[in-house]
Amino acid sequence: MNTTPRLTEPEETPEELESLLAAATTAAADWGRRSPHDRADALSAVADALDAEGQSLIIEAMRETGLTEGRLTGELKRTTVQLRMFAEELRDGSYLRIALDRQDPDFVLGPRPDLRRWLTPLGPVLVYAASNFPFAFSVAGGDTASALAAGCPVLLKAHPGHPETSRKTAGLVRSALQSAGAPEGTFALLTGRQAGVSALRDPRIAAGAFTGSVAGGRALFDIASSRPNPIPFFGELGSVNPAMVTSGAERERGEQIAAGFVGSFTLGTGQFCTKPGILLLPRGSELPKRIAELAQNVPPARMLTSAIADRYRERTTELADIPGVEVLARGSEHADPSDIPQVSPTVLHAGSVADLLSEPALLEENFGPCAVIAEYDADEDLRAAISAVPGTLTVTAHLAGQPDDAERQLVSGLVALAASRSGRVLFDEWPTGLAVTPAQQHGGPYPATTAVSHTSVGTAAIDRFLRPVTYQNAPEFLLPEALRESNPLGLPRSTHQPGASQDWAPPQ
Amino acid sequence: MNTTPRLTEPEETPEELESLLAAATTAAADWGRRSPHDRADALSAVADALDAEGQSLIIEAMRETGLTEGRLTGELKRTTVQLRMFAEELRDGSYLRIALDRQDPDFVLGPRPDLRRWLTPLGPVLVYAASNFPFAFSVAGGDTASALAAGCPVLLKAHPGHPETSRKTAGLVRSALQSAGAPEGTFALLTGRQAGVSALRDPRIAAGAFTGSVAGGRALFDIASSRPNPIPFFGELGSVNPAMVTSGAERERGEQIAAGFVGSFTLGTGQFCTKPGILLLPRGSELPKRIAELAQNVPPARMLTSAIADRYRERTTELADIPGVEVLARGSEHADPSDIPQVSPTVLHAGSVADLLSEPALLEENFGPCAVIAEYDADEDLRAAISAVPGTLTVTAHLAGQPDDAERQLVSGLVALAASRSGRVLFDEWPTGLAVTPAQQHGGPYPATTAVSHTSVGTAAIDRFLRPVTYQNAPEFLLPEALRESNPLGLPRSTHQPGASQDWAPPQ
């Protein structure tokens, strides 16, 4: 069944692009003003439509990406669960953060007018689909779901790695939205590479969202930031996700840790942004040997696209050739009927933490089934390693179940440092397999993301596409329903009563 | 008493700058981990210190800025109220948005680990003080207060328009913080122009905040965005704040509207970012004549700095010279003992809305006591004007107390458009005189700000300096106190219980 996906997709003509941008702009005024409940119903309808066509979507995605049925079934479920989760967020309404300041003639700084603040949609959003999640970070993925939930029309630049899956999904999204009464232009697909760049320069686009490489994401971020009117660009780029193991943890469950690590860095053939790319082990650890053995037993698997495979081959060779780097397991490349190569895992040993830190290339993401091990002697090594790693999505620590005093001290000093370099700090688990839930954080300092204050996974992802607007002294008939005194939508609000400000006054 | 402030302030040497940056970085780890209550106490201590020295601060600021005692007394009060307001925000704790996802073996997408999310400080923030608020947007102003509250050390680039006021305030801030136990390096003053730019390029600076001109702010935004690791830059730049008056409102209270408008656009000699710079009146309105008369009666007043006065003179001449623009009141310039000129207001009449929109220069902020009037014939004129205005902090509408059907229809169609172009839509009041309260929004699409999702006034301003971090499966002893099961700080949290996700599953 496998055939090579076309990697160059048809370009939209300037007229076609103009018509898509115009439609999205017209839709923005309407879609953005629908009640949260209306948008929730539309998102649920999209989820239902994708579930109903799940079988054919999965078959198409298997053909185009080489991913397994099991993986794609789980990913499609995640995608529709995500859509329903945002629908629930809309029905709850607290995402609007409605705040009412009551008129207060005795306000400490002089009479205060009636002020009503809420969050409103930014406007049309341009979403770039990722290669590695043909459903969950693609056409109907988290960026699309959160932007539509926020009230923003979406122009979706398809990834050329799964063009037919994208078209099929887009058709389902469009018809479900239409049946649910969403305005024409609420969602549209772009396939052209140049059209994807031109659209980002268009003044009508209000934000961009991207998941992909540092080079690609940075180029787009630079375009978004250097426009005559710069716009927010939510890029989720590269991450090395360092993990460390204490000697207590190794003594207690070394085998389990080795197996868990290999399972995590080779999951999805290493093509996850949460892949643990660096493992820090105590000096003299037995784990490198065991990890190499386990990695050698992982069967080769197809990479997502030829471009990713080429880049991975190049980067892995570059790292393996660094003087002093030992190749513990040398991955091999195999032909695949798709013409996109299959690869097996590579494990590199950089030596000491000092050796690791002396080569910046070892600290950069290598997208694919390759991991780098280094050994630490003292607390300072770990501190130095975590400090030197570029901004990362995650930092992982494996500890003993009952850490002794030395281990407690070692780790206590590292946790805050890890939090300052990442968006998620995790213990005794592995960073792949991200829960899509309210308290999730998928983000981090650059280059993990271009927008450190946000997440691209979990309900808080909706915040990216919202901005505050305050109405001052507005007559009831001119207020959006959500802000009216009668609260016809029954939304949660926080209210600041008159007289509450006297504590702020200077002492007499 | 007036003397010319030095407009070139001493440059820090590279060694001095390095030492300030190093101290801020060291302080960040400590200050950021203090409990919100500790930081609240420190902010209150700063407020108390400024209030205690209020008299001498106000005298110094009068000398340097030419602003009146009344204005500066009010502004200093706003500044200390602001500090206490953020202290209360910290004591309340909901700004941390703590979210707990309980471990859930039956989570719809597979077992979910324990996840705990909160907001953490970004790190050292570089704040550029504004010229026009020597207290409230300067050394101890809203940006400083909100960054310190968030847990970020502040490097404050002083504005050269009030250097001694800045030094005096900085000394009080530093000693109050020190007495309250804040680490050395939590706050420091920069005076050099070049140092202010070099610091923004330094990798240790995690965010920038700025209030000032479009040209200056954009240059700094470009630096922040083009760093090897780009950082958030919260620039509050230019805004024209269009206001419109219906014929019903004019009939009902034309005189009051004319007086209110003149009071607002000439307040602070027109040097407020919320100055209503454009007034849209019904065709044939009597108000332009009355506005010109009232403006001619406003006595000349000193501008803040020579640079601002020069720019204002140049821009006002440029606008007055546009063919078709009628000068209804021609402002005059007068000598002042400070050598910074005094000016009286200028009122320009652009003609019709079509005339106004044909000259982009008329739609750009002119910082000073100048306003542009245009007359509209139909609904479409107002829609066109609001659409054409660059992103703005505010849009104002003056309506009849009991609008007739035609007026209701006219305005209903405009409110959503106004909200899409601005951060605050107000009715029957004027945009100057900003209430500092929870529901305030001071921001808007570019060029009003470089970060449309945020506000620089009101309690929500703290959000700018925070980013989310999630702890996954963390042992209790490694969690920050705020996230521990025992909740020793008594902070508000939202909790996601197990089993709550079953509704999100695909239908069977």
TrEMBL record, chains A, B:
It comes from Saccharopolyspora terrae. The lineage of its organism: Bacteria, Bacillati, Actinomycetota, Actinomycetes, Pseudonocardiales. Residues 485-508 are annotated as: Disordered. It comes from the Bacteria. GO terms for molecular function: oxidoreductase activity, acting on the aldehyde or oxo group of donors, NAD or NADP as acceptor. The keyword Iron-sulfur does not apply. SUPFAM superfamilies: ALDH-like. The keyword Oxidoreductase applies. This is Aldehyde dehydrogenase (NADP(+)). Residues 10-382 form the Aldehyde dehydrogenase domain. CDD domains: ALDH_KGSADH. Keywords: Oxidoreductase. It holds the Pfam family Aldedh. PANTHER family: ALDEHYDE DEHYDROGENASE-RELATED (PTHR43353:SF3), SUCCINATE-SEMIALDEHYDE DEHYDROGENASE, MITOCHONDRIAL (PTHR43353).
